[in-house]
Amino acid sequence: MPEIxxxxxxxxxxxxxxxxxxxxxxxxxxxxxxxxxxxxxxVRFFHKSEETANKLxxxxxxxxxxxxxxxxxxVAETKIHQVETASRTSGHPLRCVMEREN
Length: 102
Ligand code: TYC
Description:
Involved in the modulation of the specificity of the ClpAP-mediated ATP-dependent protein degradation. GO terms for molecular function: peptidase activity. This protein is of the alpha+beta class. It has a domain of 68 residues: CATH 3.30.1390.10. It has a 3-stranded antiparallel sheet. Helix 2 crosses helix 3 and helix 2 packs antiparallel against helix 4. It starts with 8 loop residues before the first helix and ends with a strand. Bound molecules: L-tyrosinamide (TYC). The site of L-tyrosinamide has 13 residues, from strand 1, helix 2 and helix 3.
């Protein structure tokens, strides 16, 4: 039988100010992934416009990496898995990492 657990007054009245930690998905440059493939990934998995995706891809190409989105941890992990699965399936080494905000 499920047991009803009453919160103490202190727990019940504590304002819920904590937000879940958020994580940037950072896409990394490499020497082999085609530029058009990177643009397609940014459009498909990060919902960027073609124009924004093109600029982001060039930023990664020239600077080594760029932040592509900010998500709760499970969503960031899923994005990285989607990118890396699509990339390996197409024979490309494209990688992403996640960085905790703050
Ligand atoms: N540097 C790659 C090339 O010259 C293009 C590229 C851009 C690869 C961004 C990965 O995240 C990346 N074909």
